[in-house]
Amino acid sequence: MKRVLLSLALFTNVAAASPHLVAADADTFTPALAEKALSLDIAGAEPFGQQTFAVRDNGHLLGVMVPGKGLLRADMNACFIGWSRDGESLASLLPTIGFERFNGEACEDVKGVGVISPPGDNEVKIAVIYTATTLVETSLVAVVLAYDPQSRSLVVDNALSQRVNDASMDSIAKIRRFYAGHPENTATFDSQKYTARITSWCEEGNVGCDDVTLDSKSKRSGKSILLHGKTININCPDVCNFRGYAFENADYTYTFITNDFERWTMNITKGEQVIDSVESTFH
Questions:
Q1: In a 3-state reduction of DSSP, which class is residue 37?
Q2: Domain coverage including residue 107
Q3: What's the CATH code of the domain at 270?
Q4: Per residue in 204-260, pLDDT tens?
Q5: Residue 5 falls within a domain, yes or no?
Q6: What is the pLDDT of residues 116-137, one digit of tens each?
Q7: Cα dihedral angle (198, 204, 209, 211), rounded to 10 degrees?
Q8: How far apart are alpha carbons 124 and 214 in whole angstroms?
């Protein structure tokens, strides 16, 4: 596993972070928030004023996150995160409760927001805990966000969010402790067709890792998929050189292969037939 962790360290070439949250004024973003939310089919969007924070790292502003809520397709309440890079204008909205992996859940409130990544971590991680309802129950649902320095934006860490919710973490403090005890190594493959976050959950020292998560999204359709997989190694058992990752989804296999750890090829196959293939790099 040492080679795997070394490779992921090379992909994520970012300075060690020391992030913290500072309370911010939501009123600055309220009009733009309501307007941009219409693109998500959300009407009457308003911010959670007490849960709006500037994200700062070593004295520098990374952005301002503005959790918001509104009526999705005149049907149920949904939530999202507004993001401002400069602290003045709203750059984007990130859908959370009511969308994708949290589809079918109605958003009621934000219970807490907090940084869960420790000082010195390579990636800034922020957890948002929502109160959400379904037809049968009301529960606390955590959404973990990761700051992407390449795009200077927030993305949902679906892999970590799933593990946190499976472990029934109901407070920022508990999620912080959970994250400290379950270190992950994440790298992002960004091509013209797909954005894919690959996370290895294995400890250093494991030659082969069978606990790897793929969180991939099509830029064309907007559809995403979350799969569990393993590393690809060659020349085993003598050397076991790491060469990539493989993920199974029914009849389809997603592989990420490299020969030089610079350029990578993502192949999607059905049986023996390659139905799509793209090249890019990891960061």
A1: helix
A2: 15-183
A3: 2.40.128
A4: 656 688 999 999 999 999 888 999 999 999 888 777 888 999 999 999 999 999 998
A5: no
A6: 998 888 789 999 999 999 989 9
A7: -60
A8: 19
